[in-house]
Write a structure and sequence with these properties.
single chain, about 100 residues, alpha+beta, four-stranded antiparallel β-sheet, 2 helices, 4 strands
Length: about 100
């Protein structure tokens, strides 16, 4: 899979948990493609899930959030994934990000 809109930045908490965040700001015509790309990333994360999805402080092993915010002619789409560092790094690598 090749990502055309989402570019991930990673951060590590030093205890084995990572956060990968990507944002794209697009015109309305490109919004469906960005959302489809984000859904494909989420589907890949689900397929390779290291355990149950949910807030980490509520016994989830990984979690994700997809948000969008319109500002004038552009919409910002943000995808954040949190989970075990090795799992997230392997996921992002497989996505070609």
């Amino acid at each position: 899979m090749s990502l055309n809109y989402l570019i991930f930045d990673a951060s590590d908490d030093g205890e084995g948990t990572g956060t990968w965040e990507a944002m794209a700001s697009v015109h309305a015509a490109d919004l469906p493609a960005v959302l489809a790309e984000a859904q494909a990333v989420l589907a890949a994360a689900e397929r390779r899930a290291p355990g149950p999805r949910g807030p980490l402080d509520e016994d989830g092993v990984w979690d994700a959030a997809l948000d969008q915010h319109a500002d004038g002619e552009r919409t910002a789409v943000t995808l954040t994934i949190t989970g075990p560092w090795a799992w997230g790094e392997a996921l992002i690598e497989r996505l070609g990000a």
